[in-house]
C-alpha cells in the first residue's frame, strides 16, 4: 500500500460513525480498505434492516412521484427514488411544529440510460468511459447501485442515483396505505444500505452538495 493511500485510510478512520461498536467500526474500516470508493458488490453495499416502522436515509423505494418538465409541458413520473433526508429528521417520533418533508433523489436503470445515450448518437467510446466512471463513482452527481436479486427475482436493477434530480414530499404521504414498508418483492422498499454502502452514499452526497470548488472570493 502506498503512502498516499495509507494517509487517506487513516483520515477515513477518523470519520467512522461514532455510534458503532469498536468491532463494527473495524468491520466497516475493513470494507472501506478493500472496496472504497466502489459500490459494485451488492453483498457489500446492501443490507436488510429489521425495524421497518419507518424509512431510513438511503432506502430505495418504488413509485415516487417526480415532477417532469419538458417542451413547455408539466407532468408527474412515478419512478424509483432514494431517501436523501436524514433519518432523524423524518423519524415519526420526533415531533415538530412544522411538518417535515422527505427529500428523494431519482434512481435510473443503467441499461435504459445507455439506450438513451446510444439513441442520442453518443459514441461507443464515450459510453464506455461514462460507464467506467459511473461504476468507479467518479461522477460527482451520480452514485452507482449494483443489481440486487433474491435468487429468483431481480429486486434492484443495475442503476444509479442522480442527486441533482430531486423531489420533496410531505412526510404524511407515507401515513396512508399507498406504500408498503416491507422489502420487495412483497413491499415497496427495494433495498437499504449496509454500513459500508451508507458510508459511501453519504460521501457521494457530501461531494455533490458541499465540495469547495466554486473559486469565488466572497469577502467585500
Characterization of this structure:
With 220 residues, the protein is α+β, with helices and mostly antiparallel strands. The chain has one domain. The protein is built from 7 helices and 9 strands, in the order H-H-H-E-E-E-H-E-H-H-E-E-E-E-E-H. The chain has helices at 3-14, 22-35, 42-45, 87-90, 110-119, 124-135, 195-210; strands spanning 46-47, 60-70, 73-83, 101-109, 142-145, 148-149, 154-156, 159-170, 189-193. The protein has a 7-stranded antiparallel sheet with strand order 1-9-2-3-4-8-5. A hairpin with a 4-residue loop joins strand 6 and strand 7.
List keywords for this structure.
about 220 residues; alpha+beta; seven-stranded antiparallel β-sheet; two-stranded antiparallel ribbon; 7 helices; 9 strands; about 35% helix; globular
Amino acid at each position: 500500500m502506498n503512502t498516499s493511500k495509507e494517509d487517506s485510510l487513516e483520515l477515513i478512520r477518523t470519520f467512522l460513525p461514532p455510534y458503532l461498536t469498536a468491532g463494527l467500526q473495524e468491520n466497516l474500516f475493513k470494507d472501506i480498505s478493500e472496496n472504497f470508493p466502489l459500490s459494485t458488490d451488492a453483498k457489500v453495499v446492501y443490507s436488510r434492516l429489521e425495524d421497518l416502522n419507518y424509512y431510513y436515509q438511503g432506502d430505495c423505494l418504488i413509485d415516487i412521484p417526480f415532477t417532469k418538465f419538458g417542451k413547455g409541458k408539466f407532468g408527474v413520473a412515478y419512478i424509483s427514488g432514494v431517501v436523501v433526508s436524514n433519518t432523524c429528521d423524518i423519524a415519526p417520533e420526533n415531533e415538530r411544529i412544522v411538518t417535515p418533508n422527505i427529500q428523494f433523489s431519482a434512481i435510473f436503470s443503467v441499461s435504459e440510460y445507455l439506450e438513451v445515450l446510444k439513441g442520442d448518437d453518443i459514441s461507443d467510446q464515450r459510453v464506455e468511459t461514462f460507464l467506467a466512471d459511473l461504476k468507479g463513482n467518479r461522477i460527482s452527481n451520480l452514485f452507482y447501485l449494483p443489481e440486487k436479486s433474491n435468487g429468483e427475482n431481480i429486486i434492484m436493477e443495475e442503476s444509479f442515483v442522480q442527486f441533482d434530480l430531486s423531489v420533496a414530499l410531505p412526510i404524511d404521504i407515507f401515513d396512508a396505505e399507498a406504500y408498503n414498508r416491507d422489502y420487495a418483492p412483497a413491499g415497496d422498499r427495494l433495498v437499504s444500505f449496509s454500513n459500508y454502502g451508507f458510508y459511501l452514499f453519504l460521501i457521494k452526497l457530501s461531494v455533490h452538495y458541499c465540495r469547495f470548488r466554486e473559486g469565488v472570493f466572497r469577502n467585500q
